[in-house]
Amino acid sequence: MPKSIAICTSLLELLLNGVPIEGISGGETELLPALYVALHTGDPGADGDQETNEVDYPGYARVAVARDPVNKAWRVVDGVASALGEITFPDAPFGTTTVLATHASIGVADSGPGNIVYFGALEDPQKHEAAPITIAAGTRPILTPSATSIRET
Question: pLDDT tens digits, residue range 17-36?
């Protein structure tokens, strides 16, 4: 059974920005202060965790994105969310072996095998085709707002 656009939008607001859903989540429970964006060298899959195919280079770390209903990090409209700013990963230091990031995920842990909330292939939003990120020595991987689209269905 499908969900309404209104509940899809509300779920994205709750999960990404920490905005309670009236009549469902009144904010009585403690919310995670942030979710963590990770890069992957392959599809982590629906049964994977944040470490599944996760990118690995010296200094790499998942990026925390705050869940704040006042200072939102995600724009949510009609069941679709996108980051309001760039999601910038640590620089790859000189001597780093080239890595190709093909997927990204949003999960609950800053490190280790945390649960994935959303995941998907990196795509060019205009061309609707794969747009992997090449991570090599001296580069800084960045996800732009247009590349972070999440659709709740």
Answer: 988 877 666 655 566 889 99
Secondary structure of residue 28 in the 3-state scheme: coil
Model confidence at 49, pLDDT cuts 50, 70, 90, reads very high
pTM (two decimals): 0.87
72 in Cβ contact with 18 (< 8 Å): no
C-alpha span between 84 and 76 (Å, rounded): 10
Domain count, the chain: 1
SS3 57: coil
Hey, is 147 helix, strand or coil? helix
Give the range of the structural domain holding residue 136, as residue numbers without chain letter.
5-151
Which of 92, 91, 99 is closest to 42 using CA atoms?
99
